[in-house]
Amino acid sequence: IAGITQAPTSQILAAGRRMTLRCTQDMRHNAMYWYRQDLGLGLRLIHYSNTAGTTGKGEVPDGYSVSRANTDDFPLTLASAVPSQTSVYFCASSDSGSGSNEQFFGPGTRLTVL
Amino acid sequence: GQNIDQPTEMTATEGAIVQINCTYQTSGFNGLFWYQQHAGEAPTFLSYNVLDGLEEKGRFSSFLSRSKGYSYLLLKELQMKDSASYLCAVRDSNYQLIWGAGTKLIIKP
To answer: CA–CA separation, B87 vs B103, rounded Å?
Structure first.
């Protein structure tokens, strides 16, 4: 693994189904983030985690949950998917000890909810 | 509310120079970032400004004026591979990034 990986790459999901998007990083970054990206809108923060064992809500958390059991993994769960959750989902991580604390992004998961 | 404004789309010619502007109104300021995003790919980090002035990095430069809530990204000697979206983001008082919708840059031969 190099950097951040996400799985699956894409998924078509029936409304009402439960889905977990996976995110793993091998950079030992303390902070991790989940964003959604929709056409014409900026990246919007769903949930974040500043360190293993802690999570926080972002701008659009409703319908999503996260966990951070260890440093490397940060899964995002949709408990009961709805069509408005159709989007591209990006996971990111950052090292708060670095000067700029820039975020590094995974390749994304394209999710379609029908 | 918090707001990041940047033009939706710009067109420029290969070999030329283009300036992409970003204005922001946020609750607090802890740095401004520019990212590049090619179609269908993840955003990648380009630059970071926390103090006023110009930061130069090869063909790309980024400028910040905190008093005006304004930044620009300057791309010189444009190449076809620079065709991408350029995202402006501000880190607010909660140390979260607020993102603009991005500027799609089209490079013509």
So the answer is: 7
The residue among A101, A104, A109, A110 with the most chain B CBs within 10 A of its CB, best to mutate, is A101
What distances in angstroms separate CA B78 from CA A26, A54, A67, B55, B62, one per listed residue?
34, 43, 43, 18, 15
What are the beta bridge partners of residue A78?
A19, A64
Q: Give contacts of A90 with chain B, Cβ < 8 Å.
A: 42-43
Share the mean pLDDT of chain A.
95
Q: Which residues of A fall within a CB distance of 8 Å from B94?
A: none
Decide if A111 contacts A34 (C-beta within 8 A): no
Among A30-34, B1-5, B46-50, B58-62, the minimum mean pLDDT is found in B1-5
pLDDT digits (tens, 9 = 90+) for A35-82: 999 998 889 999 999 999 999 999 999 999 999 999 999 999 999 999
